[in-house]
Amino acid sequence: MNKKKTSKKHDFSLKEMQLINLKDESKFKKSTSKDFFKNEKLVAEALLQCLIDNDTEAFMEILDSYLRVNRTQIAQKADLPRSTVSLAFSSKGNPTIKTIAKIVHEAMIMRK
Prior knowledge:
Helix content: 40-55%
CATH topology of the domain at 37-111: 434 Repressor (Amino-terminal Domain)
CATH class of the domain at 37-111: Mainly Alpha
CATH architecture of the domain at 37-111: Orthogonal Bundle
Distance between the termini: 67 Å
């Protein structure tokens, strides 16, 4: 029985997309990710939404970006192995809520 090839090159390219100009840009607020991460309430809402949506990968990405911590220091202060902290923020990690709580607690103390 002959096997059929299923993989094909995509016919779609972002380079081929037509640019759209907005007529009235005044309605849009210009912001940066720095602005987002300065607002603890927005970060908390985003983290909660990730939990509601069962999107653990996005949760850890947002948390990692928000904390911006030295993982070695956090590991020492939280009394966790550095590998546990690094693995917690990796795509292969599956940290417990206790591990996340320790990391967040120590990171917030360090930020002050």
